[in-house]
Amino acid sequence: MSNSNDWTESWMNSQQNYWKAWADLAQRGMKVPEAPKNPFADGLAQWWQSVSPMAPPTGRDVFDKVMDVSKGYFSLAERFMSGAQAKPDGGMEAINNWLDGMQKTWSDWTQMGSAFRPEGMFSKDQFKGMNTFLDLPMDTWNRLAANVMPMPGDYTQAFQQNGAQPMQDQISKFLSVPAVGYSREAQEQYQILAQRQMDYMAATQAYQMAFGKLGMESTKGFQAALQTRMKDGKPISSLRELYDQWVEMSEAAYAEFVMTEEYQTLYGRLVNTLLALKQQMARMVDQNLEAMNMPTRTEISTLQCRQQELRRDNLKLHKDMKAMQAQLEAMRQSMLQMQAAPKPAAPAAKAEAVKAETVKAEPVKAAAPKAAAKPVAAAKPAAVKPVAGKPAATKSK
Amino acid sequence: MMPFDMRPDAVMQELTAYGQKLSHGMKNLMEVGEISTGVTPKTVIHQEDKLTLFRFNPSAAKVANKTPLLIVYALVNRPYMADIQENRSTVKALMDAGQDVYLIDWGYPDRADRYLTLDDYINGYLDRCVDVICERHRIDKINILGICQGGTFSLCYAALHPEKVKNLVTMVTPVDFQTPDNMLSHWVQQVDIDLAVDTLGNVPGEMLNWTFLNLKPYQLMGQKYLGLLDTLDDPEALKNFLRMEKWIFDSPDQAGEAFRQFIKDFYQQNKLLKGGLEIGEPVNLKNVSMPVLNVFAEQDHLVPPDASRAMRGKLGTKDYTELSFPGGHIGIYVSGKAQKTVPPAIGKWLDERS
User: Fold this and answer.
1) Which of A91, A140, A307 sits opposite B6 (nearest CB)?
2) Same domain, A215 and A355
3) B108–chain A Cβ distance below 8 A for any pair
4) Domain assignment of residue A91, yes or no
5) N or C terminus of chain A with fewer C-beta within 10 Å?
6) Residues A278 and A192 in one domain
7) Is residue B232 part of a domain?
């Protein structure tokens, strides 16, 4: 750890010295060297690369996430610093340029039909390292999709980069070829797979384009919030405040958008097309397994279903048996009591005998295990209740 | 007036401080050790398949209420949220309030559990746990405290087996699944749940995780981690954060058939409120005749307060009480304020009806 600390201190000092010297030059009106694109973020990445192998498994994921967010945060700082050093406007111009650029990016995004992924757009210097700020909902979806698909990560990117159109054209041609001959069934299955792949890609594209619009709304909201702050005389005084304001406006725009009918449809289509694609993949895997005389998922599911039905029946039988055992035991006790009770000599003694029996029933209730008593009550047999000594049972006599 | 008042040297200082916090945080992270959760000592009472029924070891002096209290947690996430750490434990606070506390841990279903239905969970597992507790205490009925989805299950159970429930407490429990502010419900309306379960079998817990995080992606996937920096230099605060993080990402897979019915009947068709729900038998909320305490959180983004409040007037009981907590879905278990107010209020309410 001491090595990592040393490294960190050294990194921080060098960063500090660099920016100080750079600011001094700017203040003296001297020509300043061009600022490196992402000195903080890159330095941070290097630091994490060097210390992360020492991080214990506990908390490693958390720190990974902290680092992801930090990179974006530092990029934001660099954007501000590079524009603000020699300007007297408190970085306003830099921020405005940044926002205008972002607005344009979102606008381009919503108008682009085939360029799906935002990475291509955010890899421009202006947005380098900012994905964690701008792309969180999409990033979350990609993780979700990756979780249910056999391919790692967002494999659809492979179909969406430059040059993807010829591939899509090929798929369209393939889909238009009628399936004939001895391989007809196999060809049909592949055609269904290709069609579902296309459907999913189209759904993904529509979803992402909608998020382009959301980005524009977030940016507008952020700009409006800045105006309000200006009017209220509450300027943003730190990077953290800037970031928190951005999060607040993004979250507000997001919350509004995802409660629309439009989003509900987009989301439903996205999830359904993904699942349909996976279903077709699983079907084809099953067909291959069957061809190799191996158990398929469908067969195993059938067995699991039957097994669960059997277990359910089995548990019910156990419960019924337990209840019947309790009934039998109760009846046996009742018989024993009746045998032990003195026979009534005359009709006048009958009422007394019933009373005695009811009193005697008390110890029976206490002696009988509660477990046995419960199901009896549930089954409500007429012969059982007298044993428990309950008034209703006594009446039934 | 400009909207910014950020001097470069101040920003520089901010970044320097940020780097130092990261560095110190890394040091604390190296020394953090194992993260313990589920801290109150407990004993296994009953086990069945993946399910475990625990009893928190009672202190004889403290148990004032002789009717045991069974906590029914959700299938989603893990029940140690209710006992996450020594000074943030709803379980411990309930015990301090004189309750004899049991808890159902549903475990982690695997593919062999895919065909478990809500009937299996509610009329099977839950009912058998209630029987076990009744047998142990030689009583006919117990108190039940259902949490979130577990509260919905408890409500259904109380409607189906009212003779076994003495008092019912529901915490952050949805009853109306289609309130206008219910984001999850809005999203799921056009999702083909049959296709999902037929394709996936069990529904991966991770899939649910990401869905929950998408409720507030900028806060939950971004801002939260920046906020962590402010507490990184405090080893205890770091541990608390890691505990919570562990819980958030510790989501069991959902048994397919139970998930199918839960989403279709509850979220898509809102049958618990509108009627028509069947879990083995028809579920009629008018059968819930025992006293009910409905506890909800005013800033709950998962179960909006109105989703819980909908219970009012729909039950058969004449003894219905609401307890509103000014906090969120998780805060109601773990915040210091909740610890001081919610479990004692539940304990008092139960004692008054024991």
Assistant:
1) A91
2) no
3) no
4) no
5) C
6) yes
7) yes
Residues A46 and A137 in one domain: no
Least CB–CB distance from A147: residue in B10, B15, B207 = B207
* Same domain as A130, residue A81: no
Sort residue B49 into left (φ over 0), alpha (ψ -120 to 50) or beta.
left
Number of residues that this document lists for chain B: 354
Active site residue B156: no
Closest-CA residue of chain B to A65: B225
Please name the residues between 22 and 41 in chain B that touch chain A, using a CB distance below 8 Å.
22-23, 25-27, 29-30, 32-35
Give chain A's domain count.
Answer: 3
- Measured between alpha carbons, how far is A121 from A99 in angstroms, rounded to an integer? 15
A387 inside domain: yes
Q: Which chain A residue has its CA at the smallest distance from B10's CA?
A: A238
Report the alpha-carbon distance of residue A131 to residue B295 in Å, rounded. Answer: 40
A236 and A114 fall within a common domain: yes
Q: Is beta strand B101-105 parallel, antiparallel or unpaired with respect to B51-56? A: antiparallel
| A contacts of B199 (beta carbons < 8 Å) | 275-276, 278-279, 282
CB B140 within 8 A of CB B166: no
Residue-wise pLDDT for A123-182, tens only, equals: 444 444 455 556 677 777 777 787 777 765 556 655 555 555 666 677 777 777 777 777
What is the pTM (predicted TM-score) of this model? 0.82
Residues A259 and A124 in one domain: yes
Residue A221 and residue A252 in contact, taking contact as beta carbons nearer than 8 Å? yes
Domain ranges, residue A370: 319-342+349-396
Asked if B210 and A144 count as a contact pair (C-beta separation under 8 A), the reply is: yes
Residue B346: inside a domain:
yes
Q: Which of A54, A86, A118 is the last residue of a domain?
A: A86
CB contact under 8 A, B216 and A308: no
* B142 belongs to a structural domain: yes
Question: Are B72 and B145 contacting, i.e. CB atoms less than 8 angstroms apart?
Answer: yes
Interface contact B222, partner A, CB < 8 A: yes
B64 touching A (Cβ < 8 Å):
no
Task: For residue B89, give its domain range.
Answer: 42-352
Residues on chain B touching A280 (C-beta within 8 angstroms): none
In single-letter form, the type of residue at position A182 comes to: Y
Q: Among B221, B223, B228, whose Cβ lies nearest the Cβ of A140?
A: B221
Structural domains of chain B, count:
1
**Which single residue is written with the structure tokens 């490196």?**
A36
Q: State percent of chain B over pLDDT 90.
A: 74
What SS3 class is residue B160? helix
**CA nearest B144: which of B266, B287, B290, B46?**
B290
B63 touches chain A (CB under 8 A): no
State the CATH number of the domain containing residue B296. Answer: 3.40.50.1820
ipTM of the complex: 0.91
Which of A30-44, A164-178, A350-364, B276-290 bottoms out in mean pLDDT, i.e. has the lowest? Answer: A350-364
State both tokens at A238.
């730190």
Contact B219 A229 (CB under 8 A): no
Chain A environment of B222 (Cβ under 8 Å): 69, 72, 132-133, 136, 247
Are A229 and A288 members of one domain?
Answer: yes
